[in-house]
Amino acid sequence: MPNIYPFPAIAGQERMKRALLLNAVNPRIGGVLIRGERGTAKSTAARALAALLPEVRAVRGCRFGCDPDRPTSWCTECRERSAGGETLPVEKRRTAFVDLPVSATEDRVVGTMDIERAIQKGERWFEPGILAAANRGLLYIDEVNLLDDHVVDILLDSAASGMNIVEREGISFAHPARFILVGTMNPEEGDLRPQLLDRFSLCVDVRGIADLRDRVAIMERNLAFESDPETFRSQWHGQELELSEEIESARDLVDTVKYSSRDLLTIAGLTTTLKVDGHRADLVILKAARAQAALEGRSALNDLDIALAAELALPHRLKHGPLQQGEASLLNLEGQIEQIQAALPPQEDSAVPAPQERTNRPVKKKIT
């Protein structure tokens, strides 16, 4: 394994680390955008997260790492193998970390169909792109604000649908594209269009740490890591292993976390009170709150889960109100939740069964 700085060794930046962990528990949350000045451990945290994620079960020999336990999301090749009577073998794979270059084109991202081979030999051949490499892994986009808007749209569509379908000249190929999407940017170099900004489910603004002890810890740990990476990693290995096991357990639990009608009304009341546009924020808060509960080993939501989720889901969506500076204060959110719940009728507390996981409808893309 390359010498990657351990995730638990990152000093401070708790909100950023929490946003990453929630997406690790449930990639369907839809990714996280980390905005901040240079030298605030944005890329370090993304790489460190990928390094501690647990191994995943995959179909052996599959170029896309299909999940053997989710046949509805299999790629075209695995479906054909299964339809031919083959029992698909299984293997364990490490979580992939894919770094998307700013110069990436649409073909490089979604993959290409070899039309010449199809015409000459009658064979369908798909050359995988970045989405295929990132399936069931972490896709990292540094300086996402400098990436072509059309490519960002494609990435966000795939992250939301969980599938990548490429069509060209009447030939199509599909493969799963479920990944943890992490984008980082320095606002001083330009911002994302509001339409794209809203598509990132969670957003964290990071800045240099003011606490002197934390700043000293950062210097000491970085010097120790540069001096002897292996020894430094071994010192943090126990905490990494513990966190990896917590993520794995939370992944098994997250789809069973229960929430009540009162929880849903609280979320809706919160986004309505703060004048948040659309309904995406409501869904994101619910998903993130369930992931927060699962990460703590609980099977039901509480008010703090909702507040912690809203703290990450609202900063880039607020336009009016006391949080208009983009700083979703946990204290303010908890106060808002108390006011909303005080106005709810007492009977609104019945449990809502956790829904069964559904396969999102894929988004088709044509290569011209």
Task: Compose a concise summary of this entry.
The protein has helices at 14-25, 42-52, 76-83, 106-110, 115-121, 130-134, 149-161, 194-199, 212-227, 229-253, 261-273, 280-295, 303-313, 330-342, and strands at 32-36, 56-59, 90-93, 97-100, 112-113, 126-127, 138-142, 163-168, 171-176, 180-185, 202-206, 259-260, 351-352, 363-366. With 368 residues, the protein is of the alpha/beta class.
Description of the molecule:
The two termini are 39 Å apart. The chain has helices at residues 14-25, 42-52, 76-83, 106-110, 115-121, 130-134, 149-161, 194-199, 212-227, 229-253, 261-273, 280-295, 303-313, 330-342; strands at residues 32-36, 56-59, 90-93, 97-100, 112-113, 126-127, 138-142, 163-168, 171-176, 180-185, 202-206, 259-260, 351-352, 363-366. It has 368 residues and is α/β, with parallel strands linked by helices. The strands form five sheets. The protein has a five-stranded parallel β-sheet with strand order 4-7-10-1-11. A three-stranded mixed β-sheet has the order 9-8-14. It has two domains: 7-55 and 94-209, Rossmann fold (3-Layer(aba) Sandwich), CATH 3.40.50; 257-352, Magnesium chelatase subunit I, C-Terminal domain (Helicase, Ruva Protein, domain 3). The protein is built from 14 helices and 14 strands. Helix 1 packs parallel to helix 2 and helix 10 (229-253) packs across helix 12. It is globular and about 65 Å long.
